[in-house]
Amino acid sequence: MEEYLEESNETSKKEEIIGLYDKELYDEMMEYHKLKHAREDGKEQGAKENSKKIAKEMLGKNLELSLISECTGLSIEEIEKIRRNH
User: Fold this and answer.
1) Would you say 54 and 72 are in contact if contact means Cβ atoms under 8 Å apart?
2) What's the pLDDT score for residue 29?
3) What's the pLDDT score for residue 12?
4) Taking a C-beta distance cutoff of 8 angstroms, is the pair 67, 61 a contact?
5) For 16-75, what is each residue's pLDDT tens digit?
6) Quick check: 8 pLDDT over 70?
7) Closest C-alpha among 73, 37, 36 to residue 52
8) How far is CA 23 from CA 14, 18, 67, in A?
9) Taking the model in full, what pTM does it have?
10) Which SS3 state, helix, strand or coil, does residue 62 take?
11) Mean pLDDT for the stretch of residues 7-18
12) DSSP string, 25-65
């Protein structure tokens, strides 16, 4: 058993093994960040779509574009585009 432990310790210290371990950790970290950013992008996209929906409803009530922009955070140009498309 002691012999096995000594051999394991020596092997784990080899540069190539450490490099593989580091690469595995790096790959896991990169995957985590990709997923995190995808999730954040999805949330931002959902918020933007919600703002467009609200703007469409406000346009239906003939509210001023500046008020719609202020309430939704959309630009006047974005709101005008929504009005043209619906």
Assistant:
1) yes
2) 87
3) 55
4) no
5) 655 666 788 888 888 988 888 888 989 999 999 999 999 999 999 999 999 999 999 999
6) no
7) 73
8) 14, 9, 52
9) 0.62
10) coil
11) 59
12) HHHHHHHHHHHHHHHHHHHHHHHHHHHHHHHHHHHHTT--H
> Please, are residues 46 and 59 in contact by the beta-carbon 8 Å criterion?
no
Alpha-carbon gap, residue 63 to 55, rounded angstroms: 9
Residues present in the chain in total: 86
Distance, CA of 81 to CA of 84 (rounded, Å): 5
Q: Which tokens go with 57?
A: 């409803």
> What's the rounded Cα separation, in Å, for the pair 40 and 35?
9
Distance between terminal CA atoms of the chain?
Answer: 76
Q: Which two tokens stand for residue 19?
A: 């490099």
> Residue 21 carries which side chain, given as an amino acid letter?
Y
Q: What is the amino acid identity at position 17?
A: I
